[in-house]
Specification:
alpha/beta, 10 strands, disordered N terminus, globular, 333 residues, D-Maltodextrin-Binding Protein, domain 2
Length: 333
């Protein structure tokens, strides 16, 4: 017989029943050990997109350590905030976790009404990988290097079309950083994702796009776009001949797509420890490392693969972007 009461049998005492059910579920958690069933890894973006590709590679490797499948669930909408809110409100039992990128740091400034608090509504598991960004121009853009690009942007500011993948996307953040570095206002053109933004650049409908290597390396190597540099502090393995923008004379444009894994607040420490251990193991997996290298992504240092590493990074990134977003006057309801 199940000793735990069913909430539906006490309609007048839903709160009390809910608390009893949670207590019973946590008791069962401790008795049965964790994990005893598949873990769902929620991805805020579409299947096949950059975050999804990272999640599937890392999730498959984590499943080998956990002894249970890690099932990917794509929950799209509202710039990733729908998925984050969903996980924040999920049962804190270790079976529903979130992988998200820089959007966790920018959402508090971008959205007037956010249904979660990124700092307090989650347990932190660890950072995963960094994906460098590249600054590209259409193939026939007159500027041939980063310094010429900055001069061209200033001279043609009223006519320039700067593409990005939508409000809150990292390409959108990069466009803000670029405008700040160049010192001019530029017309931005939002698209529903990186794929249509890249299609527009390839077709010459827009002039400039800042996007991550997972989407751009193939086009750079094919010579169908102009590469002005990477938005990283050092040169990257995927494009060793490409200078950083700072090297090329355009300073102040440093943006990297970083990813972190989160669980609902109150998730038991046993689950968090096992999830972190599985994440660390996955990031040492040769298959994962080979896949990330293909994408131009780089596994973060071990110091960042920790709950505290992710917590402190999220705080720093939130503080970095807040004044920039406020100055740009960009908000979503």
């Amino acid at each position: 017989m199940n000793p735990c009461p069913q909430a539906r049998s006490l309609p007048a005492l839903r709160t009390l029943a809910g608390a009893a059910l949670l207590a019973c579920s946590l008791g069962a958690f401790a008795a049965d050990g964790y994990p005893s069933r598949p873990v769902t890894l929620v991805v805020p973006f579409a299947a096949g997109g950059p975050t999804d590709v990272v999640a599937r590679a890392v999730g498959a490797a984590m499943s080998r350590s956990l002894g249970q499948s890690v099932v990917i669930e794509n929950k799209l909408g509202a710039g990733g905030t729908l998925a984050a809110a969903y996980v924040a409100k999920a049962a804190p039992d270790g079976y529903t976790v979130l992988i998200h990128h820089n959007g966790m740091a920018t959402a508090p400034s971008l959205y007037r009404k956010l249904p979660f608090n990124a700092q307090t509504d989650f347990e932190f598991i660890g950072q995963v990988v960094d994906v460098p960004m590249t600054l590209l121009g259409r193939k026939n853009l007159p500027a041939n290097n980063a310094q010429e690009l900055a001069a061209w942007l200033k001279a043609n500011a009223a006519q320039v079309n700067l593409a990005h993948a939508g409000l809150g996307a990292v390409s959108h953040l990069c466009s803000m950083v670029l405008r700040q570095a160049v010192g001019v206002e530029l017309q931005t053109v939002p698209y529903q994702g990186t794929a249509p933004a890249m299609t527009a650049l390839l077709g010459g409908q827009v002039d400039v796009l800042c996007d991550q290597t997972t989407q751009t390396v193939q086009h750079i190597k094919a010579g169908t776009v102009k590469l002005y540099g990477t938005t990283t502090a050092q040169r990257i393995k995927a494009l060793p001949e490409a200078p950083t923008l700072a090297e090329a004379g355009l300073k102040g444009v440093e943006v990297v797509v970083w990813h972190g894994v989160y669980a609902p607040k109150g998730t038991p420490k046993e689950a968090l420890d096992k999830l972190n251990g599985a994440l660390r193991s996955a990031l040492k997996d040769p298959t994962v490392n080979a896949r990330m290298a293909e994408l131009g992504a780089e596994v973060v240092p071990e110091s960042k693969q920790t709950p505290e590493g992710l917590r402190s990074w999220l705080k720093a990134e939130t503080e970095r972007y807040a004044p920039m977003i406020k100055a740009a006057g960009v908000y979503a309801d």
